[in-house]
Amino acid sequence: MRPISFSITAKQGNARTGTLSTPRGDIQTPAFIPVGTKAAVKGVLPDQLKALGAQAVLANTYHLYLQPGEGVVKDAGGLGTFMGFDGPTMTDSGGFQVFSLGAAFGRTITKIAKGEENERDQGVAVFDEDVQTQHGQLAVIDEEGVTFTSHHDGSLHRFTPERSIEIQHALGADMFFAFDECTSPTEPYEYQREAMLRTHKWAERSLKAHRQNIEANRKQGIFGIIQGGRFEDLREESAKEIASMDFDGFGIGGSFSKEDMMGALQAAVKHLPEEKPRHFLGIGEPGDLLLGIQEGMDTFDCVAATRLGRHGTIYTKRGPIHMKKEQYLSDYGPLDPETLVAGTETFSRSYLSHLIRANEISGQVIASMYNLGFILQLVDGAREALLEGRFNEYKESFISTYYAAGIDKTT
């Protein structure tokens, strides 16, 4: 018997709600999974995650491999025990960091591209700019894997599909992802196809490495990742290929242009088996979450909620606002009168604006907690709406209100 299973409770069009069962507990889907990159969600303690409604947490293989090392996490009892989180856990493969350190190195290309590049505080690059002057490009991809230098100290390392799986076995999460190559959304068709075919080969090797470890097979589920960039034909080809393999679940990976995201997603999802869970990697924009649910995705992860909070932006039902704006310093109302988030109910916009302006760490903590609670509530509301057969109305109502005034990008 496989360590994870999935059952569908209700559907409305392609959207669905169900239960993803894991060794450390059930996840009611659709669900947003906060990212604890280094076994910690920035600004939010594990018990606070539970209070906010988080059902699971996702950590990063690349970062935990470099610090503190997978052996430390394994000896602590695995990721969940190590970080003091008693719910289900996931790890990604390190493939996204290949993208960040390789094709995107020195740039600020994001998961959802809006043109060539985005503002620094929206970016995903994980490199240390000081290291760039010493080592140049940090990652070199070949057919067998990727060779990279640590962003900590410039030391040389090597990831292959087999090594990524070995590390993720040691980290011990309930679910983890096959090693893949995540491309920049600006890469041409020819390279997107080359990277996709390489990802397929790496998927086979990742799956074989996992299935050969009998103990890990009893405790951990493995997800294959669909690639193909913004091109619908590649997404369709990749979905067919990855779906033909014996994975426990599937992830939609890579980067998109905003305009192409839905077409690429629709092309992929229709070829995935109905009875297995689907995860949308790195997606956290409120509207994108609802559109992903609409197309049949079950779980999501993203760092955006806490990252935006640390930079002073908070979500509201009427759209995001930036707390450094002069008008909020004398606004004594709640952070959002339409959204109550556990642990942040007593704070005013004035107080948070003051903390952000003063660069007080407590301001970053409050904003991070609030934003994460907002996103968790949004997805929980979608799940409730699906159970009640009113998801389309829920989605349209939120989107029409949230985006009515446009996005506040003032910094």
What does this structure look like?
This protein has helices spanning 46-52, 61-66, 70-75, 79-83, 95-101, 129-135, 161-171, 189-211, 214-219, 232-243, 261-269, 286-294, 304-310, 349-357, 361-387, 391-402, and strands at 5-12, 15-22, 25-29, 31-34, 57-60, 89-92, 112-113, 139-141, 146-149, 156-159, 175-177, 221-226, 249-252, 256-257, 278-280, 299-302, 313-314, 321-322. With 411 residues, it is α/β, with parallel strands linked by helices. It folds into 2 domains: 57-301, Queuine tRNA-ribosyltransferase-like (TIM Barrel, Alpha-Beta Barrel); 313-402, no CATH class. Strands 4-16-15-13-12-11-6-5 form an 8-stranded parallel β-sheet. The model is unreliable at 104-111 and 114-136 (pLDDT under 50).
